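Thread: 2-acetamido-2-deoxy-beta-D-glucopyranose complex, take 2
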Amino acid sequence: MAKASSKKVQSLILLAAVLLLVNNAAAAPAGGFLGSWELISQNAGISAMHTQLLPKTDQIAVFDASVWHISRLQLPQEKRPCFWHHNKLTNQTAEDCWCHSIFYDYNKNAVKALKVQSDTWCSSGGLSADGRLVSTGGFQYGAKAIRYLWGCDTCDWVEYPEGLAEPRWYSTQVMLSDGSFLVYGGRDAFSYEYVPVEKESNKAAIAFPFLFETQDFLERPGNPKGRFRLENNLYPFVYLLPDGNVYVFANNRSVVHDPKANKIIREFPQLPGGARSYPATGTSVLLPLYLPRDTNKPVDAEVLICGGSVREGLYLGEEEKRFVNALDDCARMVVTSPNPEWKIEKMPAPRTMADGVLLPNGEVLIINGADLGSGGWHCADKPSLKPMLYRPNAPEGQRFAELAPTDIPRMYHSVANLLPDGKVFVGGSNDNDGYFEFAKFPTELRLEKFTPPYLAPEYAALRPAILEDQSDKAATYGKWVYLRVKSSEPLTINYVQVSIVAPPFVTHGISMNQRMLFLSVIELKNNVAPGVDEVVVAAPPTSALAPPGYYLLSVVNQGIPSHSIWFHLK
Ligand SMILES: *[C@@H]1O[C@H](CO)[C@@H](O)[C@H](O)[C@H]1NC(C)=O
Ligand SMILES: *[C@@H]1O[C@H](CO)[C@@H](O)[C@H](O)[C@H]1NC(C)=O
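Output below.
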């Protein structure tokens, strides 16, 4: 009896140790490899303000804005005629013969010119269930636009300038469990609306007072210009929750919203310390969801928010030219918990305008931005050149690691996107009202790739390779998926994980629809062929856990991810 129980204890200890190993597999990058940078384009022609990785084409859609009627890439002959822009404010009409959008082929490092006319400045977007970019909102004549872009060699934008009911500048788009899109907010748009079917237009939006309530102002008694509008609640962080409702975070408050009934179901504790949404521009991710084998078990959803600025950051930068420390904390909260509370940790450095990238092994890369100030033109200083790794499962105090620095500042209007090879595409930075080469922070046209520590050469032997081509692997909800994996040593069940990550629409420190799940591993069969193992996983059981569409699937061995393949969930 005693023997049996001590054996049980022993195996429990062993199990705990193994779990700890799996969770912390990449906790201490071997050989101290802190990642590396490569310049992949000296001049992409446009500054990367918005990006969306597109499935199956090796291309990333990159675009900025047409408001300036200029870029560094002429509209090619075959895309002409040029277009005429009328500026409502100045009542001036000007011809525009420049590109504001490209496809960037991240394998060939090639640029292909595209033509977008309705102004996409500070717009929102997402990848539809069938794999095209659906882009919404923007500036002036683009503010109500809905646009579509497929990722093929001959594809170009299809635009519907009057699709939305309300103008939406700095709004957030989110996919619901049925594959439809909602768009929340935007400047002076205290409402939300569904993206209608193509070619149709919305008649009315649905009121959402939470976005009115969360605006910030700075009172300036006696100042003839009146109070200063800080906002701090634009580009809200919005996530689909495992029960199909929607988590909405704006400024320092957050709620669960039932969009069908338009009801706020619960409100969470406020997040202290300052402001988090645009222009304060903290960054946020929904931490990976872990799917249990027993599909009746509930799945926890935890939100992470890092950095931001003091409430009056925009005012200090814009009016007083003073740049104070950005916020230097990360806060996380299990938003499905009956007793939710923010758990706050200090980052190694302050940060505003960072991008939060979910990596295929479940770590979070905090990259780009600045140490001082807030979002907005010329409102920040001291570029944050070092990316930061956040390991959600490491013990508190051991979660952050500062990585190798770049020498290119990525300030306001920067982007970062995970690529199928596990590297991170980095672009943008435009702190100027136009294209300026000689500003303190010039309009940045260079593109880089960042190689995270898990791609260190010393991990090469651990890295599995999925034996599938790059075309999409279709999967049905709840069904098993069979993956053949090549590895130098046979995989073991306790060290193997399979992740899927939905490629987000990235702009202004927000990664819309970014979502990652660790699938339940059903079985591992070693040596189904020489040097080949088979991993059997269960596709997510419901579309509220993982809405339909394209994900990057990766097999992770001891924290080291494989090159990913496209996984098409329907
Ligand atoms: C705008 O300009 C046009 C022609 O240049 C002029 O006819 C029109 O009255 C102007 N509109 C306003 C509102 O100033
Ligand atoms: C949240 O922000 C509001 C201003 O928008 C402020 O009055 C309130 O004190 C903040 N809450 C916390 C907990 O800091």
